[in-house]
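Appendix B: complex inputs.
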Amino acid sequence: MTNMRKFEFICCCFAALTMVSCGGDENDDDPVDLTVASSPKAFNYVTTVGNAAGFVSDAPRYEVVFDNNSKKAVVTMENIKLSESDEPKSYRFIDVPWTQGDGGKAKVIDVKSIVPDGYSNVVFDELDIIYYGEEKMIDNVDCRGLAVEYEVNGTANVTMVPYRMVCGGTTETLNTMTSKKFVSTKTVYTIDLDPSTMTADVTVSNASFDAAMPALRDMLFEDVNLVLSDGGFELHSPQFIPSIAGTPYPSYAISNFYVDAEFDSDMELRFRCMKVFSVEADLSSIYSPVN
Amino acid sequence: MKRFRMGVAGLVVTTSAWATVADDLTAEPDTTKWLDEVSVTAIKQSSDISLLPTALTVIGESQVERFNVLAVKNVSEIAPNFYIPDYGSRMTSSIYVRGIGARIDQPVVGLNIDNVPFLNKDNYDFDLGDIERVEIMRGPQSTLYGRNTMGGQINIYTISPMKYQGSRVMAETGKGPVMRMSIAHYEKLSDRLAMGISGYFNYCGGYFTNLYDGRKVGTEKSGSLRWRTEWRPRADLSIGNVAAFALSHQGGYPYEYAVSGEINYNDTCFYRRNGFSDGLTVRWISGDVSVSSVSSVQYLNDNMTLDQDFLPLDYFTLTQKRHEWNVTHDMVARGSVGNYDWLGGVFGFYKHTSMWAPVTFKDVGIRRLIEERRNEVNPFYPITWDERSFVLGSDFSCPVYGLALYHQSSLDFGRFNLAMGLRLDYEHASLRYRSHCNTGYTIWDATGEGDPTVFRKEPVDIDDTGRLSKSFLQLLPKLTVSYRLPVESASDVYMSVAKGYKSGGFNTQMFSDVLQQRIMGMMGVGAQYDVDDVVSYKPEKSWNYELGAHMTCADGRVRTDMALFYIDCRDQQLTMFPDGTTTGRITSNAGKTRSYGAEVQIGYSPVDRWSFNFSYGYTNARFREFFNGKTDYSGKRVPYAPQNTLFADATYVQPINRSLRSITFNLGVRGVGSIYWNEENDFKQPFYAQLGGEMTFDFGWLSVGVWGENITNTKFHTFWFQSIGNAFVQRGKPARMGATVRLTFDS
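Resulting structure:
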């Protein structure tokens, strides 16, 4: 738990205790058990009916307070624009039901037709939130996973897109000359998105494509083309020279670089290195560094 | 230096009925001299140590002289399964007992000299004149002696002025050349006060030559002074103090390149050490209760400077300068009630080490280990170092303190004895480090068609500081059951189960790797090390199961000691590669080993003029589990631990007349091996034996001996290691001859 959540918990406990001592009813006996999920630094990608291209809305804030006893959540959204001409608005939903997902590791909200507090003309046709709240260290970076996507009034589809994602998983490399495969679970890909230029930088940590390969520090794939979509994004680049410690490494030339990511599920990454090593990785794209 | 002489009866535990050589026929046997109330053995263990439920070898005074035991190294192989290879310098005392040993950091065998516990194994190897007795206990002694006694405990006692008064002079010369001199005087100033002072000097000219400059390597000049005081102000109170000062300077390390067989390196190598120690023992005895206090202070100041590559090329050099202070205190209370004996104690220590360990990279090292490795990965943007020599600096401050409580209870049931002991040992170690480097390199752009142009100049300015700390808490139990055999002479069989413990800590040698990887990382290559993961290591633990017997028969003329053992060692401190990578190395608790074997010691003196001694040890030590991140060594033999040790000798004393009292003839052999040098087990030293002999002319106050060591000039290696992919060995000393003169003026 974060310190804020602990403080809230303690306050709630103290409040519950005083109520008990004052002869409160039996429902106040259960201690309050809350999990608070906050969004990382992110932007919204919004698509609207009738517009071929979506637009980017900066600095939305999402907070979800999960009540672990009642299985209800309070969802707060701030600085939300549903069209480019709109003024930013805030929305709040109470008593939103949630369930455990992914074997108990995730908290999942999947509701339809929900109206935020104080609004009668705004209907969230779909509200999908997934939260991985356990402390997860990926390459020594403390991360949490939060994916938010929703559809409003049948016209706008909004996807929360973190500026930075830390993606771990399994990287399998095939040496096309020897047909030998090498698998690494240590390789981590940090993806930094820049919606203003529609490019991304991908930093590959613990790059290891072959058992005999010397250990390399972070490889940087710069200015890879970015394509945003509802619920995810793609990266692609036909060919480029990666750099390590600020120096280009032509001998590690990358070709056919491609990433296909869905925020609420897995990410697929592939490229070829040195024209010999064919790299494919199955990664998780939901984790971002804790601010 | 291994000194080998044939002694009368020095190898095995002897009993009060053991016969000694002609010049000792009327003297009290050595065992009675062991019952010294200021000895730590008597303080902590039964007065009849010949029946202790442990594998024990005692070398008494006459045997010390006949084998010329001057240092811990000289007892190698005399005790079965006890091996101390003679290589490198006085800093490299890697003791291997029953397959357990250590080349780095913490020792596996404890060492007490006149009750002073030496905490640092780098300070174990020095010559002592006038050793009275050496005790080697094999198997874990952790319950009574604490940390770092997983393999055993060595107790050395010098001559007590309360028991002997007189003057002694020894002068020796031999091939090397080797020259030794010692002079000592022991005097009783009153019935209650006695003092002894001794001095020792050693010179060795070196047995091998460095081809690079034609100079001898393995040279040494060393000396020591020792002042011992014993005071008994009252009948129930005894106070003993031993102050010692020692210094040594050794030149060069006789490591030869395995491929060429040559010792050939260009940079300076030496080891210099100064040390001081003082130990105060106070013992109060009242009836069946005794309380003893043993306090000590030690100071070590040494400097090891190495040509780290041992080649005639400018790769790199290492200097390790150290100042270290140790303070220890052990308080023991003992008593007995009927057939129940009890012992309880408190031990505390504080050790502080300051170390400076710079590694200097030189031209060839920069080119081959940095530039070429980096440019192989990125030939389009090659680098050149801005200097052809730079320093990786490492400074450390390492305070360690510990506290232990221990207890042992022993109960006699008729012929049976049951003893149980337990020690609670707490230790806290800290390391403050500073790694620094100030240099730089240039990155060139070689992608164009013309000459490479400067892409970027990159300074390397590192000044990292940090602090690590670890705490260790261990329970160290021991259980022994012994049965005194229904025979007239002292004989028993025993069974014991004991836990051994080697403390954890920090391997400061890894810091140069950490810093090197950091610099390589600045250039984009090299593993990223977490300092704590790379440098810290946890304690190593073992369980020792032993079955043994001590037998005396034929009116004490035959003495036999036997033991079977099994050791299960966990969290072994080993060098390995970090997870998932194939470069770099860290110290980690990565291994499990098991070791089993047998030992036998036999002493036989059919008549007073003849004596024979034999000891043999067999150890089968293998890894049960050890994956170093690259290779699985499970099932392989543990390196550096010998499979067999052998010692055998025969002595004959021929009386002559009143002037020339006797001539003593000694002949003996020491053997060890095979020894595997690496985890792969693809390099080894097969079993080898060295023959030695001596003829001593005894005139009473004067004795003259002529001796030979490794008479058949057996060729063997005592050590093997790898540096930057090259294998090096150290040759054993060649055949040598010499003479020793002793003068003894008893008061």
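Chain B has one domain: 22-245+254-358+393-431+452-746.
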